[in-house]
Amino acid sequence: MSHSKTKTWIHAVFSTKNRQPLIRKTVRRAIHQLIRQQLIDQSCYLDSLNSVDDHVHLLFLLNPQRLVAEVVKHVKGSSSHEINRQNLIPEQFVWQTGYGAFSGSESQVERVRQYIAHQEEHHQKLTFAEEYHQFLNFHGLSGEENGEVGNR
Fold it and tell me: Which of 14, 45, 56, 125 could form a disulfide with 51 if both were Cys (CB 3.0 to 4.6 A apart)?
């Protein structure tokens, strides 16, 4: 092969610090736009983005010149900086330290899109903590073994 080709879909999820309900409907669109801009800055294509009061889900194509960790760090750091700079919410805004990032195949993209699109309905039945533990179990990860603790 004379050229390298990659297509890595990432479903990322991260929450507000201590899972505080800071992503209110009144500021959700603005926060989403800040996150979208940070992914553009990292040359990553954002396919889907949605949130509820205490966490966000993203589906994006990873830029092959970037690491997942550096993209997520940039998105979280720059978006929280802008949320605070623009005074979008009265409290100091901080994302929780950790995050989940799960790769998915092309055949699962539509399923992930739908999952992200229906967050409000989904979280009428399940808390973020329950959802996140389901992700860890589904992907063969155990929370405590991988440094996941309650409200870090």
Answer: 56
Q: At 65, which CATH number?
A: 3.30.70.1290
Long-range contacts of 59-62 (CB under 8 A, 24+ apart): 59/9, 59/10, 59/11, 59/12, 59/104, 59/109, 59/112, 59/113, 59/116, 60/9, 60/10, 60/12, 61/7, 61/8, 61/9, 61/10, 62/6, 62/8, 62/9, 62/10
Domain that holds residue 54: 9-144
Number of domains in the chain: 1
pTM across the whole model: 0.85
pLDDT tens digit sequence for 2-30: 788 899 999 999 999 999 999 999 999 99
